[in-house]
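Title: Prediction job returns without error message
Component: structure pipeline
Severity: low
Priority: P3
Assignee: unassigned

Description:
Job completed but the reporter wants confirmation the result is attached to the right record. Sequence as submitted:
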Amino acid sequence: MQKIGIISANGFPYDGIMGFKSHTHPFYQIFYTIEGFEDYVYEGEALRVDQGEFLFVLPDREHAMPTGQPGSRVLDLKFNLEDGELHSRLQTLPAHMRCTEQMRDLFRLIHEESQRKSAFYSNIISSLLEALLYSALCEFCPQYGGAGVGVLKLLDLDYNSLSECVQLTLRRIEGAIVLGPDESVLDDAAQMIGYSKRYMCRRFSEEMGVSILQYITMLRIDKAKELLRSSDHSVREIAELLYFNDSPRFCKTFKKYTGLTPTQYRRLPSPENSFLLYSYKDVRTRGQEQKK
């Protein structure tokens, strides 16, 4: 089931007269400036949205366009969300964002599809928009960024030597660690890569030397280290963001992998706080020994 329900997707020029009064509505809306610029008022704040930027309107938030700008072109997207988890995540996005190259490419494809209006255009736009929203979360919300130390490298494995099933699994779960609890990540991964969960988990353990759940824990600890170094989030908030059941469990697991509590780790000067008590290779080795 698709997470996003498209209400409308239209790209059109403004003639310098067109605008709209302050109002709210129960759905999401995006105004992406294709050419020129547009002025908006969002929650009482005046915002100029230049080419390559967009205004992200949350449900029930007051917004207006006092006047249109001659020669500007805007892509207007209206949509609903069927996914409560994604809805919660999107509340952390800023209203005014400048696109990365990847996001501009996605907007270009959405605009082209909105003009073409093919038989499945709403489904195509829904998939493209989902990718764009996750890209925005990674770009503008530090808790979802991807600057970890790279667990796969620490496991000393050659990605190209892995089976297609394991490669697809790795790609799917790498960014999913902040999007749901363990079992949800496993179910989602199996569904998206087209293998049964049982087969996926067995192949992963055989080729990686650790279970998927162990690997996900490594990814979560890796992300926790990054957040402790680069954000002001409390230990409790980081535990919640990374889907540990509670702070005590997070602290116990973190100490297992680093030899320190999260608070002790955060107090270490850089680059001392980049180490692990033992490497992930050791985890893999212990797992292999236990099988013998």
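Comment from assignee: result matches the submitted record. Confidence is low (pLDDT under 50) at residues 275-281.
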